[in-house]
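Fold this sequence, please.
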Amino acid sequence: MIEIKGNIVDIHKRIIFPGIVCIEGERISAIHEIHEDLDTYILPGFVDAHVHIESSMVIPTEFSRLCIPHGTIATVSDPHEIANVLGMKGIEFMLENAKQSPLTIIFGAPSCVPATDFETAGSVITAQDIEILFSNPQIGYLSEMMNYPGVLHRDPEVMSKIAIAHAYNKPIDGHAPGLKGDLARSYIEAGIFTDHECYSLEEALDKVSYGMNILIREGSAAKNFDALHPLIGIHPDKCMFCSDDKHPNDLLHGHINTIVSRAIGLEYDIFDVLRIAHLNPKNHYSIPIGSLNIGDYADFLICSDLNIFNPTAVYIKGKKIAEDGNILDEIPKFDCADFSPCAISTIQSKALSILDKSKHIRVIGCIPGELTTHSLIASLPSTDGFLHSDTNQDILKITIINRYVESTPALAFVKGIGLKQGAIASTIAHDSHNIICVGVDDESMTNAINQLIMCKGGIAYANGSNVECLPLNIAGLISSDDGYHVAREYERIDDIVRKHGSNIHAPFMTLSFLGLLVIPSLKLSDKGLFDGDTFTFTSLYLD
């Protein structure tokens, strides 16, 4: 038997008392109240209620090494990124690797692969595939239903996937940016009860009024905590915390614990905050984790401060997994063969030329801290009849190139990346994960793109002929290398990008969402410029 003393934070009775937690095997056998002055606290572990592990650029076992030291004991994880590239094979890889992790990972069955018919993905997940996935106990829910127009119009294929989830009694995750009123009600009435895409308190409260649970997101790119935190005090029963997408260098510094600390810093009730960070997602997704009850799995964290939640120890199933920010338990290495499709030839810079055919053009406008974009209008300089980037206006050329079959690059312009020199490129490009590149000049763009084609995926920065690259050998999304090494390499390249002008927090993360068509307003797919408000293609040229 293991006995651990500390001030026990009981989120059910909403009290804190000095006590001893007794552990036998994987479970808590007894909890005794004592009369001592203790300087540590024992509390339930944190749950990330919606995360794409692939965004950390590491495999699930390495992801767990990065997040467990911060007190995360479980995640609700949507593998639709790797599914868009590798289909069922990619999902099976994630499930198999996750078995080696002490982290409890509930995976979803991807509902929208591809996300839309307006882009080219590497695979398709059908309703029949979803039924197969639900036979696996690791699959606990239907992943975010991004095709909200399909839900609103009761598209037969969309509704068949929803019906399968209902038949298996699985919760369905939502994705409904901007929907309010009757549209939100219609979406929710289909049986979809979470949304992590709220950008305003007004929108969140409207959805809550129809029964929706709101996930307060604070990730590497999308940061909605500042807008949504009043929900913690108004509807603590209808909230959860999530990161959605978290880059590896950010995971070095914190995870859900940082959101909890910010909420406590705003003087929200600690029991409400811990309910949101633990109990609400546990109950909604039926996650098999302990909550500091007798008979529960011995899953908890120990910390010395209930204002800044930096755990001194993390226990999962009765075993101390992390201590003082370090993983103690040796997580088995997973033998990963490289598999990343990239079936295209290298390009020449002339493929990136954009004719000057109009005085005014449409420009994608980045919004700091959000995945939504503006649809802007601008005039750009031209040389020899071709438009080019203008760093004075912070408007740069952007391209998406289909990496699954040979095709002509799609081209446009984007404002808000901030680069003054060179180009950034990535095969992480939501949701179909083609090659996306933004740059100041065509030579740098060409070299960055060709480096990714040659290594079959990753992220790259090029300044003329000088190229820095982080290869991602699995699907062009994740690396099988040590998670801390990947985090350091990513941070190194990210720093180089910032030294060359980009002033946004996560330039590669921001880049990766410029092709996500299901988030308005103006985006780019491998097939052309896309209006996310009307859900139709649009022309680059206005005149």
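The radius of gyration is 23 Å. The domain at 45-289 is CATH 3.20.20.140 (TIM Barrel).
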